[in-house]
């Protein structure tokens, strides 16, 4: 099937930047939608940003619009999340997600998941 591996998490101060990467391997040729979810302690895992393979369809959660940018390098089977002007509320474990299907904001529509990478933003 498909394996997803995230990297790039870490500890930054508020206002700083961080870039997450997620590399897909295996039968990644079948993937259409890729994106990022995050889960803070005691909260549900919610969508951050998702993007179709062609880039024609992209969605961001309202709280990150203007600060985060999702991009994909299809030749490398990799999706990125550039995070600027980070806030303490962005602190969470960030998960890469993928599906053969169309864009969705719902966690249960994604059938491939990475192991997660911790992002911590200090005040």
Describe this structure in words.
- Strands 2, 4, 5, 6, 9, 10 and 11 form a seven-stranded mixed sheet that branches. A four-stranded antiparallel sheet has the order 1-3-8-7, with no helix packed on it.
- It has 123 residues and is an all-beta fold.
- The mean pLDDT is 95.
- A hairpin with a 6-residue loop joins strand 4 (33-39) and strand 5.
- Helices cover 0% and strands 51% of the residues.
- It is built from no helices and eleven strands.
Give the topology, please.
Elements lengths: L1 E6 L2 E4 L4 E9 L6 E7 L6 E6 L6 E3 L7 E6 L4 E6 L8 E8 L12 E2 L3 E6 L1
Parallel strand pairs: 2-11
Antiparallel strand pairs: 1-3, 3-8, 4-5, 4-9, 5-6, 7-8, 9-10, 9-11
Beta-strand fraction estimate: over 45%
Q: Helix count?
A: 0
Shape: globular
Compute the separation of the termini in Å: 40 Å
Nearest-integer average pLDDT: 95
Series of H and E elements? EEEEEEEEEEE
Helix content: under 10%
